[in-house]
Write a structure and sequence with these properties.
This protein is mostly beta strands. Helix content is about 0%, strand content about 40%.
Length: about 160
């Protein structure tokens, strides 16, 4: 349920199983702990069974990988549209219910043209992004262009 280590899944068929080799060892993964990292790469996709909390680093490290929260991302406050806590390094897709981030109070890095945050209907979860909280980071890299609500686009080298 809680990751307190560093886990990386690489490739579309990657998985973690129990000793019998049958049961998905990450089936109930619900919390990425402080100081922990969870990374998916090279076409690996991951879907939680319910709510998810990221207190560590969540990395979707390739354009063809997707991390889907099948429930609520508890770091997101849908009343204030604020993402709080955790680090999100995205080259691929992070998708969660109600994604509509207006204020970032976490650390987000979007790398490359395929990096995105989507809501459950695949709508841009950063379309209304307007404020980055003091001491937090919103970074674009790898040629990613980004335009905050009502502002000119930012393009990274």
């Amino acid at each position: 349920m809680t990751n307190a280590a560093n886990i990386t899944l690489t490739g579309g068929s990657s998985r973690t199983v129990n000793q019998s080799g049958v049961t998905n060892g990450l089936r109930n993964f619900a919390t990425n702990g402080s100081g922990a990292s969870f990374t998916i790469n090279s076409g690996a996709n991951f879907k939680t069974v319910s709510n998810f909390t990221n207190n560590g680093t969540l990395t979707v490290g390739s354009s063809n990988s997707k991390f889907t929260v099948n429930g609520n991302l508890t770091n997101f406050n849908s009343t204030t549209n604020t993402l709080t806590g955790g680090t999100y390094n995205l080259t691929g897709t992070l998708q969660f219910n109600g994604a509509n981030i207006a204020t970032n109070a976490a650390n987000i890095t979007l790398t490359g043209t395929s990096s995105q945050i989507l809501n459950q209907s695949s709508v841009n979860g950063l379309a209304n992004f307007a404020t980055n909280a003091a001491g937090e980071a919103f970074t674009v890299a790898g040629g990613r262009a980004f335009a905050a609500a009502g502002r000119s686009p930012i393009r990274a080298a």
